[in-house]
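Why does residue order matter? Because the sequence determines the fold. Keep that principle in mind as you read this record.
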Amino acid sequence: MPRRRIGFWYRLAAVIAKPPLVVLLKRDWRGVEHIPADGGFITAVNHNSHVDPFAYAHFQYNTGRVPRFLAKHGLFKGGFVGAVMRGTGQIPVYRESTDALSAFRAAIDAVERGECVAFYPEGTLTRDPDLWPMTAKTGAARVALQTKCPVIPVAQWGANELLPPYAKKPHILPRKTHHVLAGPPVDLARFYDKEMTPELLKEATEVIMAAVTALLEELRGEKAPAAPYDPRQVRIAQRRKAAQQKPSGTAGEQTGEHVGEQAGAPIGEQTGTAGEDTK
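Structure:
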């Protein structure tokens, strides 16, 4: 299947975005040979800076296979940004969809048309304190198993040194280097033609993220943690620790009336938090 033409809007976006990227970031890009020359495929990329979508798009634009990113559908509604998003073929995600597969239908269609869809499987900037990939969502695995397309793992590092996660000001000097390492396709054949249960999708996602993490280890020259950072489990552990450290109160405060008065909130609000912790 032939590759899609880059088109006017993507070239316009490149004209706008590439000059500042060239000025701000040196480039160390490897693994270009693993980007398929033709046909649809997915790239699974780690995410550690608000700058890295632009830096990574620059890398892949230079391969001739422009990425179609998934983005919340509100960005497509109007104005110049909406026009660029639509014109460059970015893919709206309707998160309110009750059908998980339908939420990614546009991504599936794009792959089947022979395009590249770039996934940030983590769904947002990593919460790992050392910026290793954290636990991921299953969207990339879902599309990969539905289409049986190649999944190219990609690790990147360096945009986070220009603009750390959630920082308000970039660290421009000294000039930073954007490192990218693309690897060979992830072998997901053992998951094909099986019911896409949550357990299957989770396992396939873990295989994809293990490949991305291994590439990032190579880029950083360090070993990643044995288990990826899981924000949900961390939140649960923090709540439990806070509950254990909370004073039990005096004997006179054990009645429901006194508890509500001392805390300054109704009894229903006091028990609501505990109920959330048990979910």
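Residues 48 and 125 are 5 Å apart (CA to CA).
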